[in-house]
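Subject: Sanity check before I submit

Could someone independently write out the structure tokens for this chain? I want to compare against mine line by line before I put it in a report. The sequence has 707 residues.
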Amino acid sequence: MVSVHNSAGSPGLNSSCGSPKDERAPHAQWLESPNHRKLPGGKARRLFPRSAILAAILMLLPHASIAQTSPFTSSNLPIVVINTHGQTIPDDPKIEADMGIIDNGEGNRNNIGDPFNQFNGKIGIEIRGSSSQQFPKLQYGIETRDGSGNAVDVSLLGLPAENDWVLSANYADKSLMRNSLAYNLARSEGRYASRSKYFELVLNGEYQGVYVLFEKIKRTKSRLNISKLASTDVSGDAVTGGYIIKIDRVAIDDSGWYSLYKPYAGATNRTMYLFDYPKPADIVPAQALYIQNYVGTFERVMNSPDFANPTTGYQAYFDLSAAVDYVLLSEITKNVDDYRLSCFMFKERDSKGGKLTAGPAWDYDIAFGNADYYSAYDSAGWNITELPVTLATVDDAFPIPFWWPRLAQDSTFWNAAKERWITLRANQFSLSSIDHFIDSLASYVDEAQERNFERWPILGVHVFANWFVGSTYPQEVQFLKDWVAARVRWMDHNLLSDGTTHGVALNELQVDIDSLTARLDGPVAYIQWDTRSEFNALRFELERRYKFIDGRDTLWRTVASVAAADQGEAAHAYSCIDTLPGIGQFVYRLRIIGKDDQSMFSQETTVQRLLTDVPSSQVPVQFGLSQNFPNPFNPKTSITFSVPRETGVKIEVFNLLGERVTTLVDERKTAGLYTTSFDASSLASGVYLYRMVAGDFACTRKLVVLK
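---
Independent answer below. Compare away.
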């Protein structure tokens, strides 16, 4: 049996209220900090070895962040067991280790004591990733090898045989599926993207959680099937392809060249193109010069006034259909790194098409609303045009090449994107298809995710760069589904807002809103709106978000739903009320729902409730946590708490062993009196502790479940 033991014990709850909070809170916030500095010629010097950085970070981790788990004995997922025989896994180079896989087939249980029946042999293994190396749950790159240490192609978990693989940890992505979802969408477009298989990992006798096996991007017949370049291919058609290049952070063994153009006026950083295939050590001078000159010609055309000319413009060098698919994938995911990091491109030989082609897709763990910076969490907005402006304002070290936003100035590109979006939305990108994929993965890993988050107790904890922090796995999955739905509807409205393209009926939902207003009367907001016309409208959903003093926003939340009159050209008036949960600035908008997943948004309106607007008797003067009522109880009870000023509030329930049972509250609250409920249906009878932490305030009380 394999288990991981907790060396910290109880989380340090105490029975008196008002005591300082326990500084050993079981979480750590991971911040990305660059550990490379460019050297002349595009090389990079690592300021500190990643292994040293990682060791220092792990030294700072609270002991409770690696939790005690039940013995790991079996799984419905395949089990991968790796033994490094006491060696520490470095960032580079790979060390030799043994790996075995237990996979008894779909629907059969895999037991830790079963023989290795899918693979049993040698591998090379190293830590991979950049900012992800700051996490305690690491991802790895492996190479399957023969007994002599040579790379050997092997089929792992049913994927086509190869020797380069990625073991993805999905630490910051608590849905455990953002990469798998993005690659599935890319494949549904007809483009190559990595296939994936889920498994549970045991490393050197310790359970490591749920991992995903991905195909590393590579030129091969079973992956990115482009022409192979030999060192003798230095002229004629042979030298024209195939190449794989990328825009990414610069690792110590990377090389390439800088763009001819700054990404924007005044930029201090230029885009660097890196050789991926052939590798820097393998590419010969004639090949390096060819691909550099080809990309340079493409850039010069994109920078010219006649860049959109269908004959002599960028389409002569850059594959338009692939660019459309790449952009639509980047936008539906709203990946904050796309266009500028992990951005791959390839070029086939001229005799086989020969244009620079965007893709394959790679690295989406902080996409789909999972990043809390550069508005990546907002389901509205075009990354291809808005993100470059944002990056320029802070002079980000990794800007978007100038030609991506330049491409967005071409009406031919947008017309092609509209046509492609219509086709995709009817099939591969339909919400029902996406939801089915998400639900299928969530169901498949449901058993294993419990072990994963017992090993890494980060549910309810902010991890770089989470925007949404759910207290349960189902909440993380539901957020992903809700965010995708909102993103798809925004793209529907903004791509198809003209109503038709080439005579094809599009956005049938048409509502002309005359006004949207909100007024305040005590804690109640009265919202009114008028419409001049309504076509194919089903209902209005009133959404609200709260703006904090520090400038951050909450997510939009639906607070009311009103049926639409849908009376064509006839005007109609609507109203509803909303009781404000506290003080501060509240923003409202309408989402108008139509048929077939169609929706559109109104303009926003704002009301502000100040502390002076609230009777002093209703504003708590201090933090407080009341005794739950009823107590004892079965199965539900209520807990009231007071907050005198805006701050983050967390309320958790623990058993007497100090193990967290659940998180009831984990969010910022404005000043006010609040009540939360606790359902103990799944718990045994007994005494439990509930604890509130808010700023420097901490209070712990007992509750009794009596069944």
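---
OP: Matches mine. For the report I'm noting this point. Residues 687 and 704 are 5 Å apart (CA to CA).
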